[in-house]
Amino acid sequence: MTFRFVPFLVLILVASTYSKHNDDFESVKHGITQLFKTGNKPYFAKTAKSYQLPHVLREHMEKVYNNEEICTLCNLLFDLVIDEWKQGMTKDKILDIVKYICVTLGIENDRVCNGSITINADIVFYIVENYPDIKANRLCGSVLQAFGCSTGDDFDWSIILPPGNAAKRPQPDTSGSSFNILQLSDIHYDPNYKINGKANCGEPVCCQEDQGEADSPENACGYWSDYRFADTPWHLVEETIRQTKTQDFDYVYYTGDIISHRVWQTTVENNTKTISKLYSFFKQSYDVPVFPIFGNHEPHPLNVWPDDRLKDETLSVKWLFKLAADEWSKLIGQDVSETVLKGGYYSVSPRPGFRIIGVNGNLCYTDNWWLIYDDVDPFNQLQWLADTLEQAEAANESVHILSHVPTGDISCLKVWSREYHRIVERFSSTITGQFNGHTHRDEFHVYYNSSAPTEAIGVAFNGASVTPYDSSNPSYKLYRVDQSTYSLLDYEEWTFNLTLANSQPVSETPEWYKLYSFAQAYGVNNLQAIEVDKVLYKMAQDHSLLDDYFRFKFRNGDDGINAGCSETCRKENLCDIAKAQFADNTQCDYFLQLYEQGKQT
Ligand SMILES: *[C@@H]1O[C@H](CO)[C@@H](O)[C@H](O)[C@H]1NC(C)=O
Ligand SMILES: *[C@@H]1O[C@H](CO)[C@@H](O)[C@H](O)[C@H]1NC(C)=O
Ligand SMILES: *[C@@H]1O[C@H](CO)[C@@H](O)[C@H](O)[C@H]1NC(C)=O
Ligand SMILES: *[C@@H]1O[C@H](CO)[C@@H](O)[C@H](O)[C@H]1NC(C)=O
Ligand SMILES: *[C@@H]1O[C@H](CO)[C@@H](O)[C@H](O)[C@H]1NC(C)=O
Ligand SMILES: [Zn+2]
Ligand SMILES: [Zn+2]
């Protein structure tokens, strides 16, 4: 997850407080234009008084704001930036104006606006300067895809798939021998974590050394972290790894995000230190192979993955690819550097008949500015993925795919999401497991056959997160895997009660417990797509299963579950499970119909 997320209650509050009048909107537009043309700050400030956009760039804000207005403002702003830049306004002057707009509209506070804009400026200017005849809608249409902003006709391409259908392969043997795989995700280790710091700070991450003291005991950050926008102190990293080692497993999957949500102040040097520290700790702690992938938080600035054609080395992510090529090869126990240096992805076979593919799924994330410059299969990754799966199919291998951002995510670029879905469909029997992270929620998504939409052909499970950010209890997953087909048979979700742990003396370790096992909680035989599809039918009938799903999403985290799950929330959850491709509502609509019938019976 990036730093975009605000609890639902706040959303409602913000939405009603700032419901806009047309006049206010027109006036703020005029204010912005004047700001660029005449530099009139007081006039703009006056127009912004009744038109505030707090946290508009955080996650899920498309549910809060008038999307059309946001798209219009984005286009207006970037048209002005592009024009003024071309007409010779200096970079410093443009940045000064954009920062002023950010603070004055209440989007974030001073230092968050300043920091975020400063560290992203060079890459945006590079794109504006080097993309031939760039238009604002190319920029707003991709970055604000979640708001439904239009991209024009751009952003369409496809990769080449081999002809034919998915090969027939054997069904899993539930009674045969099996082994375990541990999935850890989204640790977001925070070197600045301050015990008893301020948990209600208003910035994208709280409990920071430089945010001052808590104003009351209720607002003080706990020893083991906090439900309110806090990340993971080192002792929680150690405690989690220690606890996982009481389990038995053959492999570890780490599905990304190491860096904290202090997104306005990252540096290459500090990210390098943090990333190396965690990987070294994995290496020293586990005596089995660890398979890591990138999260969107690993680069500096976060989210941005420029490719090799970038002429300016200072903006490149090569440093990160080099770091990973080295560290991952050690953790995996095989040299993966060739493809990691190309684009942060790899394919390895840890035992005959089994292959693990690490995908850099962050390339589809719409906050990746580089997509504006070139969205066509970045780093040729999807074509490589298809080719690699074709070889795996020919070799009769079973494949697990690790990828950070779920493909049905509202912030995964539509065309990339569609092409990924085509790959999953073509190789549905070769792919026997998919593992995501990023959302910090315990979730799963079912892939359906586009030619036979009720036919389930794949499932992606989310590793949830170690960080409580936000509202969740820290957790990990332990999968049971069929030894002969490498299909997933079940998983267990392990967690502890953060409220309880924080109320105990610090000398006591948290009481970890198994929250549930999938097969047992949902009454299915294994984690094959057809079995998981049955869960959706059950949920549509028996809505208490959706209440369980809701609790599990937050791993029983008090702040998460105390908010409650309304009828709308239940339906959204059901819909999300049935969606693995951006804006594909086919199965979602189908299950919602069943849900309504379920209410009548
Ligand atoms: C703005 O952010 C940059 C980068 O983090 C920093 O160097 C600079 O001092 C900041 N300026 C202000 C006025 O805070
Ligand atoms: C980088 O890390 C050092 C040591 O933890 C810290 O003092 C410094 O403030 C960090 N730099 C930034 C820009 O956050
Ligand atoms: C999807 O459905 C089509 C049409 O029924 C079928 O030919 C194809 O084999 C199915 N694909 C998978 C992966 O089951
Ligand atoms: C392919 O692999 C499966 C195990 O996943 C095995 O049962 C089957 O015999 C293999 N087929 C061939 C032709 O090797
Ligand atoms: C977590 O522990 C606290 C403190 O003991 C308790 O009040 C709360 O009900 C527990 N939460 C859950 C979901 O059991
Ligand atoms: Zn994350
Ligand atoms: Zn993420």
| Low-confidence blocks of residues | 3-18
- The CATH class of the largest domain, by name, is Alpha Beta
Radius of gyration, taken over Cα atoms and rounded to an integer in Å: 24 Å
Q: List the domain count as a whole number.
A: 3
- Structural class determined from secondary elements: alpha/beta
The CATH homologous superfamily of the largest domain corresponds to: Metallo-dependent phosphatases
- Please indicate the percent range of residues in DSSP E strands (runs of 2 or more): 5-15%
Label the CATH architecture of the largest domain: 4-Layer Sandwich
Strand tally is: 12
Order of adjacent strands in the largest pleated sheet: 3-2-1-10-11-12
Tally of helical segments:
21
Bound molecules: 2-acetamido-2-deoxy-beta-D-glucopyranose, zinc ion
Overall average pLDDT: 94
Gap between N and C termini: 38 Å
CATH fold group of the largest domain: Purple Acid Phosphatase, chain A, domain 2
Largest sheet: 6 strands, mixed
Q: Given the C-alpha coordinates, what overall shape results?
A: globular
Describe what this molecule looks like in 3D.
Residues 67-153 form the Saposin B-type domain. Pfam families: ASMase_C, Metallophos. It is found in: Secreted. Converts sphingomyelin to ceramide. Zn(2+) 2 binds at residues 257, 296, 404, 438. The chain has 601 residues and is of the alpha/beta class. The chain has 3 domains: 15-147; 178-190 and 234-535, Purple Acid Phosphatase, chain A, domain 2 (4-Layer Sandwich); 194-230, no CATH class. Helices cover 41% and strands 13% of the residues. It contains 21 helices and 12 strands. The chain has helices at 8-17, 22-38, 41-48, 67-86, 91-104, 110-130, 136-143, 234-244, 268-285, 318-332, 337-343, 370-373, 381-394, 414-426, 498-503, 518-522, 529-541, 544-553, 558-562, 567-577, 586-600; strands spanning 178-184, 251-254, 290-292, 346-351, 354-359, 398-403, 431-436, 444-449, 452-462, 475-482, 488-495, 513-517. It has a 6-stranded mixed beta sheet with strand order 3-2-1-10-11-12. Strands 4-5-6-7-9-8 form a 6-stranded mixed beta sheet. The chain is globular, with a radius of gyration of 24 Å. The two termini are 38 Å apart. Bound molecules: 2-acetamido-2-deoxy-beta-D-glucopyranose (NAG) (5 copies) and zinc ion (2 copies). The site of one 2-acetamido-2-deoxy-beta-D-glucopyranose has 6 residues, from helix 15.
